[in-house]
Amino acid sequence: MPKMKSKRSAAKKFSFTGTGKVKYKKMNLRHILTKKTAKRKRQLRASGILSEADAAKVRKTLLPYG
């Protein structure tokens, strides 16, 4: 049986931590930054952790070898 292919778009958006949680980059930090406060922009720089329900779906369907 051949290897399963991962969804390349998902592979570029998600990564895994050492403990197996799914990490992602937060949205809203690309453009129209002048109206956003410094606090908001600073908090958006931190990576987010996907909830366990969504992480299970990402692991199973999008990134089978993650």
Reported by name, the CATH topology is Factor Xa Inhibitor
**Helix/strand order, N-terminal first:** HEEHEH
CATH hierarchy, class = Few Secondary Structures
Global geometry? elongated
Please bin the fraction of helical residues.
25-40%
Total of helices: 3
Task: Report the span from N to C terminus.
Answer: 19 Å
The CATH architecture assignment turns out to be Irregular
What is the domain total for the residues?
1
Strand arrangement, major sheet: 1-2-3
What do you see in this structure?
The chain is α+β, with helices and mostly antiparallel strands and 66 residues long. It has a single domain (8-62), classed as Factor Xa Inhibitor (Irregular), CATH 4.10.410. 38% of the residues lie in helices and 12% in strands. The protein contains 3 helices and 3 strands, in the order αββαβα. It has helices spanning 8-13, 38-45, 52-62, and strands spanning 14-16, 22-24, 48-49. It has a 3-stranded antiparallel β-sheet with strand order 1-2-3. Strand 1 and strand 2 form a beta hairpin. The protein is elongated and about 50 Å long. The mean pLDDT is 95.
